[in-house]
Amino acid sequence: MVRVSEEKAERTIAWVLRYGSLTSTLIMALGLGLMLLRGPATSLAAYHRIRLSMLFSNLIHFDPAALTEFGILLLLFTPIFRILVAVVTFALEREHKYVLISLGVLLVVLLSVGLAIEK
Q1: Is 60 part of a structural domain of the chain?
Q2: Helix %, strand %, coil % for the chain, to 5?
Q3: Full domain range(s) for residue 23
Q4: What Å distances lie between residue 49 and 22, 36, 53, 64, CA to CA?
Q5: Could you tell me if residue 39 is inside a domain?
Q6: CB-based contacts of 109: which residues, under 8 Å, 6+ apart?
Q7: Res 108: pLDDT
Q8: Would you place residue 111 in the very low, low, confident or very high pLDDT band (cuts 50, 70, 90)?
Q9: Higher confidence at residue 45 or residue 21?
Q10: What's the pLDDT band for 7 if we cut at 50, 70, 90?
């Protein structure tokens, strides 16, 4: 049986949270900086859901609104990655009750994020 030390699991979770939030913040700052240089983004609509099909094509052109939206998506997915690390850690520890609880939390979070994304 593979055992994961609690300290190693906590370090991995801290790494995911630290670098996930740092990366998303830098991407959002880049988008906001480009918006300041280029003026208001024409693709930025008030109170809309994120459209993945348009997001990735706009990212290629360094659209400021797309960069900002992508940073927000990364920030939303950071806790999801944290939950996935917890699921794997609990599975390696054979803590089946906590695996199920973590999967339930993951389902709720994914449903919430899914409502914010338009395909």
Answers
A1: yes
A2: 75, 5, 20
A3: 6-118
A4: 23, 23, 12, 16
A5: yes
A6: 79, 80, 83
A7: 92
A8: confident
A9: 21
A10: confident
Tokens describing residue 42: 């024409």
Q: What is the CA radius of gyration of the chain?
A: 18
Residues 32, 41: Cα–Cα separation, whole Å: 10
How many domains does one find in the chain? 1
Question: What span, in angstroms and rounded, lies between the C-alpha atoms of 94 and 99?
Answer: 8
The answer to whether the Cα torsion of 59, 63, 65, 68 is positive or negative is positive
Residue 95 in domain: yes
Q: Residue 119 to residues 62, 64, 113, 114: CA-CA distances in angstroms?
A: 20, 20, 12, 9
Residue holding tokens 């994961």? 4
In a domain, 1, yes or no: no
Residue 102 pLDDT grade (very low, low, confident, very high; cuts 50, 70, 90) = very high
